[in-house]
Amino acid sequence: MSANASRLQAIQNISNRKPVAVEKPDPLGNIWAEDVFNLARMEWALSKTAFKAMKKTVQTGGPLDPATADVVAAAMKEWAVSKGAKFFSHIFYPMTNITAEKHDGFIITNPDGGAITEFSGSLLIKGEPDGSSFPNGSLRMTNAARGYTAWDPTSPAFIMHTDNGATLMIPSVFMSWTGEALDKKIPLLRSNAAMDLAAQKVLRLMGETEIATLNSSCGAEQEYFLVDTHFANSRPDLLLAGRTLFGASPAKGQEFDDHYFGAIPARVQVFMQDYEDQLYKLGIPAKTHHNEVAPGQFEIAPYFEAANVAADHQQLMMTLMKSTAKKHGFMCLLHEKPFAGINGSGKHVNWSVGNSTQGNLLDPGKTPHENLLFLLFCGAVIRGVHLYGPLLRAVIASASNDHRLGANEAPPAILSVYLGDQLEKVFTDIKEGRVSQKSDGGEMDLGLAQILNFERDPGDRNRTSPFAFTGNRFEFRAVGSSQSVAGPLVAMNTMLADSLGWIAEKLEAELGKGSNQAEAVVTVLKALMNEHGNVVFGGDGYSAEWHEKAVTERGLKNIPTTADALPALREESVVKLFERAAVLSPVELESRFEVYSEQYVLSIEVEAKLVIDMAKTLIYPAAVSYLSTLASTGTNMASIGVELDQSTAKTVAAHANAMMEAVGKLSAAMEKEDFSSTEEHMQFCAKEVRGLMNEVRSHADALEAEVADELWPLPKYQEMLFIK
Ligand code: ADP
Ligand code: MG
Fold first, then answer.
1. What is the value of pTM for the model shown?
2. Please, how many CA atoms are within 13 Å of residue 187, restricted to the half-sphere of its CB?
3. Residue pair 92/316 in contact by the 8 Å Cβ criterion
4. Using one digit for the tens of pLDDT, what is the confidence trace for 82-116?
5. Which of 75, 201, 388, 559 would be a feasible disulfide site paired with 495, CB 3.0-4.6 Å?
6. HSE (CB half, 13 Å, CA atoms) of 537?
7. Residue 491 Cα, ligand 1 centroid: separation in angstroms?
8. 371 lines ligand 1 (CB under 6 A)
């Protein structure tokens, strides 16, 4: 079928689409976590001692002895087999944003030719995929290719079903033969431990005696687009790059703001319900869903969970979202900017830290004492974002997120903190020494009780801030929709650990001088705000004025592209930060820089090749075919004495020629190989290659507006964006 024929047929087919009915949905109580080997199930399946040991490991992250692992493995296998599983797989998270699996059968044969199932503690604990199949940066050069996966008991095992069977999935870490982290889970677990250690110090200094292990929490709001598969399958760019590399703006886009929170189309709602039932079975607490700003764009957010579990669940959600969408005749686009000129997709990472004894430490609470702890933790975040803004920018850097950040629809590429009016005032008062320091009944009356007794919902939201306080958590809004949340969580936990360490040291000194707690807190926070208060910004982050001021007056960095952002991972201060906190060794960090830069270059190169290919084989032929029609019509008409206006033909010819000239330049740019450094190669991609891709596109999009509709080979924006 020719390209334009497949486009026209897609338009035909889509008119006959119906929602795909699923089996009668079960009540939540029947399906919740039915496919998860969670604590409740373990309590039922394990002996009392084994369960106690397991529970302790899950709740504190402490080690598990091999004997208990054997017992757990046996119980896990029994349960999985009873649910139809014949295979198990360690599931792990390499340095790319993907999820990886290696499946093994439970089967072993006996000498009589019979088959039985077996699963020991050692199989549960350790797997051995080939480490060289995954990007590992410089680690590949220095180490053997061997890689290991190891069970992470703090994230529950679960069953994945297909139409033909089930597999037991075991969340795991992934490391090299010499023990270096090759994945996103190990640093996340380590960053949590670092944060716990530093937070414990601060809490003890503040007089807390009973302190449970602290954990970070994450609730991620996922935005995505759905496009009918009939259209998606006719677009090589959607299939291979996940975004449209060409496409003129439709007559109607999002200018009416009529999609946000509008009625969800029936087909989409049926997809969502099917998807959410699958999430419930996996113990993933899907909580909200709605239309997003752009037509064809939606959001789903689960209730927040412990960061490690939330990160695993988030990966699983992305996988399931794509497969379930397919079942419903949609392609799910997780790309940050699938359509030019239309809002892109992000993943807001809501983050807080706390434990069972002191609660959420980013919750202002109701009493002055809780306020003091809150102020310290909140101050620690402010310091972290100020000192490590470029790191936060680096962990959300990707070729695809570059399209979104700073594009006046998503947070700017300048990292600042939004606190909301009231809280900003509290911190400004502290900085300027305006807080009353009178003693009252032995305890310092900071005059803060009233100020901080604000409603949990801080009222106004600042959609333009990349990092906003939202009542009892921070929301990192600049994260990209296709990214793993692990990287941002690692950066946040680690910078917090560093700041809490700094605070503990200062607090200790102040308390040593005989200050009482409140005096000490105010002194420390005053110093903190003097050094780092510049990062607090409550205004319009999209405005040109801020872009200017942030840099010139506040000394913040505007880091527009991934090529500019990733080198932060090589900065001495960042290397030291991760090393001090024992989250990533310098070698591990360097390997990340290499993997992420390579991915950046590769994804731009793949897109550039596609641009060349599509321009040459789809768009140019359509233009030429239209020109040939115009020419023969013109000749025929001239023969009967009628003059056809030639301006369209001239415009089409001019754009077709200019497009092919740009294609020539882009092809030549792709030949270049002599880069002196990775940094230089990335800059070349960011400036030269991207620029030429845009040049090709501008002519192609102009052609789309000229060439006869019936000849146009690619489904158009207006067809793809409005779901029927
Ligand atoms: P909004 O779109 O208004 O920002 P949503 O309800 O879509 O809010 O998403 C907010 C996310 O923040 C949810 O995942 C929610 O569970 C999560 N969240 C709420 N409180 C906390 C907290 N203390 N720590 C981490 N995440 C939280
Ligand atoms: Mg939201």
1. 0.94
2. 30
3. no
4. 999 999 999 999 988 788 888 889 998 988 888 88
5. 388
6. 29
7. 19
8. no
